[in-house]
Amino acid sequence: MSLEREELADEAKEIEELEINLLLEAIYQRYGYDFRDYARAHLRRRLRHRLELSGLSDLGAMQHRLLCQRDFFEQLLRDLSINVTEMFRDPAAYRRIREDVVPLLKTYPYVKIWHAGCATGEEVYSTAILLHEEGLLERCRIYATDFNRVALQKAKEGVYPLERARQYNSNYQKSGGRASLVDYYRTDSESMLLKSWLRKQMVFADHNLVTDGVFSEMQLVVCRNVVIYFNRDLQERIFTTFHQSLCPGGFLWLGAKESLKLMKIGEKFSELYGSEKIFKKRLQ
Ligand SMILES: C[S@@+](CC[C@H](N)C(=O)[O-])C[C@H]1O[C@@H](n2cnc3c(N)ncnc32)[C@H](O)[C@@H]1O
Protein backbone atom coordinates (compact mmCIF):
# COMPACT_ATOMS: atom_id res chain seq x y z
CA MET A 1 0.00 0.00 0.00
CA SER A 2 1.33 3.46 -0.87
CA LEU A 3 2.04 5.89 1.94
CA GLU A 4 -0.84 8.09 0.87
CA ARG A 5 -3.34 5.19 0.86
CA GLU A 6 -2.06 4.04 4.23
CA GLU A 7 -2.66 7.50 5.67
CA LEU A 8 -6.19 7.56 4.25
CA ALA A 9 -6.93 4.13 5.75
CA ASP A 10 -5.62 5.27 9.15
CA GLU A 11 -7.77 8.35 8.99
CA ALA A 12 -10.88 6.31 8.12
CA LYS A 13 -10.18 4.03 11.10
CA GLU A 14 -9.74 7.02 13.38
CA ILE A 15 -13.05 8.51 12.22
CA GLU A 16 -14.82 5.19 12.72
CA GLU A 17 -13.48 4.95 16.28
CA LEU A 18 -14.72 8.47 16.97
CA GLU A 19 -18.15 7.67 15.52
CA ILE A 20 -18.37 4.53 17.67
CA ASN A 21 -17.50 6.57 20.79
CA LEU A 22 -20.19 9.14 19.97
CA LEU A 23 -22.77 6.47 19.22
CA LEU A 24 -22.10 4.64 22.52
CA GLU A 25 -22.30 7.92 24.40
CA ALA A 26 -25.62 8.68 22.67
CA ILE A 27 -27.02 5.25 23.65
CA TYR A 28 -25.90 5.78 27.25
CA GLN A 29 -27.43 9.23 27.52
CA ARG A 30 -30.68 8.34 25.75
CA TYR A 31 -31.35 4.83 27.12
CA GLY A 32 -29.00 4.34 30.10
CA TYR A 33 -27.33 1.22 28.61
CA ASP A 34 -23.58 1.51 28.95
CA PHE A 35 -21.55 -0.28 26.27
CA ARG A 36 -18.60 2.10 26.45
CA ASP A 37 -16.32 -0.49 28.04
CA TYR A 38 -17.29 -3.47 25.94
CA ALA A 39 -14.47 -5.10 23.95
CA ARG A 40 -13.80 -2.89 20.95
CA ALA A 41 -13.47 -5.66 18.36
CA HIS A 42 -16.86 -7.11 19.39
CA LEU A 43 -18.55 -3.69 19.20
CA ARG A 44 -17.01 -2.87 15.83
CA ARG A 45 -18.12 -6.21 14.36
CA ARG A 46 -21.70 -5.93 15.62
CA LEU A 47 -22.12 -2.26 14.65
CA ARG A 48 -20.77 -2.83 11.15
CA HIS A 49 -23.12 -5.78 10.76
CA ARG A 50 -26.18 -3.71 11.78
CA LEU A 51 -25.05 -0.80 9.61
CA GLU A 52 -24.88 -3.06 6.58
CA LEU A 53 -28.32 -4.57 7.23
CA SER A 54 -29.90 -1.18 7.88
CA GLY A 55 -28.85 0.30 4.53
CA LEU A 56 -27.82 3.52 6.31
CA SER A 57 -24.87 5.44 4.92
CA ASP A 58 -22.68 5.64 8.05
CA LEU A 59 -22.53 5.36 11.83
CA GLY A 60 -23.53 9.01 12.18
CA ALA A 61 -26.84 8.28 10.45
CA MET A 62 -27.23 5.16 12.56
CA GLN A 63 -26.73 7.21 15.72
CA HIS A 64 -29.54 9.54 14.65
CA ARG A 65 -31.90 6.64 14.01
CA LEU A 66 -30.98 5.06 17.35
CA LEU A 67 -31.83 8.27 19.14
CA CYS A 68 -35.20 8.65 17.40
CA GLN A 69 -36.43 5.06 17.11
CA ARG A 70 -36.59 2.92 20.23
CA ASP A 71 -37.32 -0.18 18.15
CA PHE A 72 -34.08 0.28 16.27
CA PHE A 73 -32.21 0.61 19.56
CA GLU A 74 -33.87 -2.59 20.88
CA GLN A 75 -32.65 -4.34 17.74
CA LEU A 76 -29.10 -3.17 18.33
CA LEU A 77 -29.37 -4.24 21.97
CA ARG A 78 -30.12 -7.75 20.77
CA ASP A 79 -27.19 -7.54 18.32
CA LEU A 80 -24.82 -6.60 21.12
CA SER A 81 -25.98 -9.26 23.53
CA ILE A 82 -24.87 -12.57 22.09
CA ASN A 83 -27.18 -15.20 23.57
CA VAL A 84 -25.46 -18.38 22.44
CA THR A 85 -25.79 -20.98 25.17
CA GLU A 86 -26.58 -24.66 25.73
CA MET A 87 -27.48 -27.11 28.48
CA PHE A 88 -24.52 -28.52 30.41
CA ARG A 89 -22.10 -26.49 28.28
CA ASP A 90 -18.54 -27.62 29.17
CA PRO A 91 -19.64 -30.93 30.76
CA ALA A 92 -16.30 -31.39 32.57
CA ALA A 93 -16.90 -28.17 34.49
CA TYR A 94 -20.40 -29.33 35.51
CA ARG A 95 -18.88 -32.60 36.65
CA ARG A 96 -16.40 -30.68 38.79
CA ILE A 97 -19.20 -28.62 40.33
CA ARG A 98 -21.19 -31.78 41.00
CA GLU A 99 -18.35 -33.80 42.52
CA ASP A 100 -16.25 -31.20 44.29
CA VAL A 101 -18.20 -27.98 44.85
CA VAL A 102 -21.68 -29.26 45.72
CA PRO A 103 -20.33 -31.22 48.74
CA LEU A 104 -18.96 -27.90 50.06
CA LEU A 105 -22.22 -26.08 49.30
CA LYS A 106 -24.03 -28.76 51.29
CA THR A 107 -22.30 -27.50 54.46
CA TYR A 108 -24.45 -24.33 54.31
CA PRO A 109 -27.98 -24.44 55.73
CA TYR A 110 -29.27 -22.44 52.76
CA VAL A 111 -27.52 -21.80 49.43
CA LYS A 112 -27.88 -18.72 47.26
CA ILE A 113 -26.67 -18.92 43.64
CA TRP A 114 -26.48 -16.08 41.12
CA HIS A 115 -26.43 -16.90 37.40
CA ALA A 116 -25.34 -13.56 35.89
CA GLY A 117 -25.87 -13.26 32.12
CA CYS A 118 -28.07 -16.36 32.01
CA ALA A 119 -29.29 -15.67 28.42
CA THR A 120 -32.19 -17.99 27.55
CA GLY A 121 -31.73 -20.08 30.70
CA GLU A 122 -30.35 -23.43 29.52
CA GLU A 123 -27.48 -23.06 31.99
CA VAL A 124 -29.82 -22.31 34.89
CA TYR A 125 -31.98 -25.40 34.27
CA SER A 126 -28.77 -27.46 34.04
CA THR A 127 -27.72 -26.23 37.48
CA ALA A 128 -31.19 -26.92 38.90
CA ILE A 129 -31.11 -30.50 37.55
CA LEU A 130 -27.64 -31.07 38.99
CA LEU A 131 -28.66 -29.68 42.40
CA HIS A 132 -31.82 -31.80 42.39
CA GLU A 133 -29.83 -34.97 41.69
CA GLU A 134 -27.42 -34.12 44.51
CA GLY A 135 -30.32 -33.53 46.93
CA LEU A 136 -29.64 -29.81 47.35
CA LEU A 137 -32.19 -28.04 45.16
CA GLU A 138 -34.81 -27.62 47.89
CA ARG A 139 -32.29 -25.69 50.02
CA CYS A 140 -31.27 -23.35 47.18
CA ARG A 141 -32.45 -20.08 45.73
CA ILE A 142 -31.18 -19.45 42.17
CA TYR A 143 -31.17 -15.85 40.93
CA ALA A 144 -31.04 -15.81 37.12
CA THR A 145 -30.33 -12.41 35.59
CA ASP A 146 -29.67 -10.87 32.20
CA PHE A 147 -30.14 -7.43 30.65
CA ASN A 148 -31.76 -8.84 27.54
CA ARG A 149 -35.49 -9.01 28.37
CA VAL A 150 -36.35 -11.14 25.34
CA ALA A 151 -33.79 -13.76 26.38
CA LEU A 152 -34.92 -13.56 30.01
CA GLN A 153 -38.55 -14.21 29.00
CA LYS A 154 -37.41 -17.35 27.15
CA ALA A 155 -35.47 -18.39 30.26
CA LYS A 156 -38.66 -18.12 32.33
CA GLU A 157 -40.54 -20.28 29.83
CA GLY A 158 -37.84 -22.97 29.55
CA VAL A 159 -38.88 -24.09 26.06
CA TYR A 160 -36.06 -25.10 23.72
CA PRO A 161 -35.85 -26.55 20.19
CA LEU A 162 -36.26 -30.31 20.24
CA GLU A 163 -33.47 -30.68 17.71
CA ARG A 164 -31.01 -29.69 20.47
CA ALA A 165 -32.10 -32.49 22.83
CA ARG A 166 -29.60 -35.04 21.55
CA GLN A 167 -26.63 -32.76 22.16
CA TYR A 168 -27.96 -31.63 25.55
CA ASN A 169 -28.43 -35.24 26.60
CA SER A 170 -24.89 -36.09 25.55
CA ASN A 171 -23.54 -33.11 27.55
CA TYR A 172 -25.66 -34.15 30.53
CA GLN A 173 -24.30 -37.72 30.48
CA LYS A 174 -20.71 -36.47 30.22
CA SER A 175 -21.31 -34.11 33.14
CA GLY A 176 -22.08 -37.07 35.42
CA GLY A 177 -25.89 -36.93 35.14
CA ARG A 178 -27.51 -39.59 37.32
CA ALA A 179 -30.67 -40.18 35.30
CA SER A 180 -31.76 -39.40 31.79
CA LEU A 181 -32.32 -35.85 30.60
CA VAL A 182 -35.77 -36.81 29.23
CA ASP A 183 -36.92 -37.14 32.84
CA TYR A 184 -36.78 -33.35 33.06
CA TYR A 185 -38.82 -32.28 30.06
CA ARG A 186 -41.99 -32.94 28.10
CA THR A 187 -42.04 -32.62 24.35
CA ASP A 188 -44.38 -31.37 21.71
CA SER A 189 -43.76 -31.66 17.98
CA GLU A 190 -40.86 -29.23 17.94
CA SER A 191 -39.89 -28.29 21.47
CA MET A 192 -38.56 -29.61 24.73
CA LEU A 193 -40.51 -28.03 27.60
CA LEU A 194 -38.56 -28.10 30.86
CA LYS A 195 -40.70 -29.28 33.79
CA SER A 196 -42.10 -26.46 35.87
CA TRP A 197 -40.98 -27.87 39.25
CA LEU A 198 -37.40 -27.14 38.18
CA ARG A 199 -38.30 -23.43 38.30
CA LYS A 200 -39.55 -23.53 41.88
CA GLN A 201 -36.35 -22.16 43.39
CA MET A 202 -35.55 -19.76 40.52
CA VAL A 203 -36.01 -15.99 40.56
CA PHE A 204 -35.60 -14.22 37.21
CA ALA A 205 -34.62 -10.56 37.09
CA ASP A 206 -33.64 -7.92 34.58
CA HIS A 207 -30.18 -6.85 35.77
CA ASN A 208 -27.43 -4.99 33.97
CA LEU A 209 -23.98 -5.96 35.22
CA VAL A 210 -22.51 -2.63 34.17
CA THR A 211 -25.00 -0.27 35.77
CA ASP A 212 -26.92 -2.23 38.43
CA GLY A 213 -25.84 -3.16 41.94
CA VAL A 214 -24.50 -6.17 43.80
CA PHE A 215 -26.36 -9.17 45.20
CA SER A 216 -25.59 -10.16 48.76
CA GLU A 217 -24.19 -13.20 50.53
CA MET A 218 -24.15 -15.55 47.54
CA GLN A 219 -22.45 -18.92 48.00
CA LEU A 220 -21.92 -19.33 44.25
CA VAL A 221 -21.78 -16.82 41.40
CA VAL A 222 -21.93 -18.31 37.91
CA CYS A 223 -20.98 -15.90 35.14
CA ARG A 224 -19.86 -17.75 32.06
CA ASN A 225 -19.11 -16.39 28.61
CA VAL A 226 -20.23 -12.88 29.50
CA VAL A 227 -17.13 -10.87 30.51
CA ILE A 228 -15.41 -12.14 27.38
CA TYR A 229 -17.26 -9.26 25.64
CA PHE A 230 -15.91 -6.65 28.08
CA ASN A 231 -12.60 -4.77 28.11
CA ARG A 232 -10.07 -5.28 30.94
CA ASP A 233 -11.27 -2.34 33.06
CA LEU A 234 -14.86 -3.47 32.92
CA GLN A 235 -13.89 -7.06 33.71
CA GLU A 236 -12.07 -5.79 36.81
CA ARG A 237 -15.20 -3.86 37.88
CA ILE A 238 -17.53 -6.80 37.31
CA PHE A 239 -15.26 -9.22 39.16
CA THR A 240 -15.24 -6.71 42.03
CA THR A 241 -19.06 -6.78 41.98
CA PHE A 242 -18.92 -10.56 42.22
CA HIS A 243 -16.40 -10.39 45.05
CA GLN A 244 -18.75 -8.09 46.96
CA SER A 245 -21.70 -10.35 46.20
CA LEU A 246 -20.07 -13.51 47.56
CA CYS A 247 -19.94 -14.65 51.17
CA PRO A 248 -16.38 -15.33 52.46
CA GLY A 249 -15.32 -18.68 51.01
CA GLY A 250 -17.96 -18.41 48.25
CA PHE A 251 -17.33 -19.71 44.72
CA LEU A 252 -17.03 -17.95 41.38
CA TRP A 253 -17.48 -20.01 38.21
CA LEU A 254 -16.38 -18.44 34.91
CA GLY A 255 -16.46 -19.52 31.25
CA ALA A 256 -13.76 -21.60 29.56
CA LYS A 257 -12.03 -18.56 28.03
CA GLU A 258 -12.30 -16.30 31.09
CA SER A 259 -9.99 -15.89 34.03
CA LEU A 260 -9.06 -13.82 37.07
CA LYS A 261 -5.39 -14.07 36.11
CA LEU A 262 -3.93 -10.63 35.39
CA MET A 263 -6.77 -9.00 37.37
CA LYS A 264 -5.99 -7.02 40.51
CA ILE A 265 -9.07 -8.46 42.22
CA GLY A 266 -7.65 -11.91 41.42
CA GLU A 267 -5.56 -11.63 44.63
CA LYS A 268 -8.75 -11.84 46.65
CA PHE A 269 -9.64 -15.23 45.19
CA SER A 270 -7.82 -18.54 45.15
CA GLU A 271 -7.91 -20.69 42.03
CA LEU A 272 -9.70 -23.84 43.10
CA TYR A 273 -10.00 -25.71 39.80
CA GLY A 274 -8.04 -23.88 37.09
CA SER A 275 -9.15 -25.84 34.04
CA GLU A 276 -12.82 -25.56 35.02
CA LYS A 277 -12.47 -21.85 35.93
CA ILE A 278 -13.73 -22.23 39.48
CA PHE A 279 -12.39 -19.74 42.05
CA LYS A 280 -12.94 -19.29 45.78
CA LYS A 281 -13.21 -15.97 47.58
CA ARG A 282 -10.46 -15.78 50.20
CA LEU A 283 -11.58 -15.44 53.80
CA GLN A 284 -9.49 -12.28 54.36
C1 LIG B 1 -23.00 -15.78 25.42
S1 LIG B 1 -24.28 -15.52 26.57
C2 LIG B 1 -23.79 -16.58 27.89
C3 LIG B 1 -24.92 -17.41 28.39
C4 LIG B 1 -24.57 -18.42 29.46
N1 LIG B 1 -24.02 -17.78 30.62
C5 LIG B 1 -23.62 -19.48 28.94
O1 LIG B 1 -22.44 -19.43 29.25
O2 LIG B 1 -24.04 -20.37 28.21
C6 LIG B 1 -23.90 -13.88 27.20
C7 LIG B 1 -25.07 -13.25 27.93
O3 LIG B 1 -24.58 -12.12 28.65
C8 LIG B 1 -25.58 -11.14 28.62
N2 LIG B 1 -25.00 -9.82 28.91
C9 LIG B 1 -24.12 -9.10 28.17
N3 LIG B 1 -23.88 -7.92 28.75
C10 LIG B 1 -24.61 -7.90 29.90
C11 LIG B 1 -24.78 -6.95 30.92
N4 LIG B 1 -24.17 -5.78 30.88
N5 LIG B 1 -25.59 -7.25 31.96
C12 LIG B 1 -26.25 -8.45 32.00
N6 LIG B 1 -26.14 -9.39 31.05
C13 LIG B 1 -25.32 -9.12 30.01
C14 LIG B 1 -26.15 -11.24 27.21
O4 LIG B 1 -27.43 -10.66 27.12
C15 LIG B 1 -26.15 -12.74 27.00
O5 LIG B 1 -27.39 -13.30 27.34
UniProtKB/TrEMBL annotation:
Its EC number is 2.1.1.80. GO terms for biological process: methylation. Residues 8-260 form the CheR-type methyltransferase domain. It holds the Pfam family CheR. Transmembrane segments: none annotated. It is an enzyme of class 2 (transferase). InterPro entries: Bact_Chemotaxis_MeTrfase, CheR_C, CheR_MeTrfase, CheR_N, SAM-dependent_MTases_sf. One of its GO terms (molecular function) is protein-glutamate O-methyltransferase activity. Keywords: Methyltransferase, Transferase. PANTHER family: CHEMOTAXIS PROTEIN, CHEMOTAXIS PROTEIN METHYLTRANSFERASE. This is MCP methyltransferase, CheR-type.
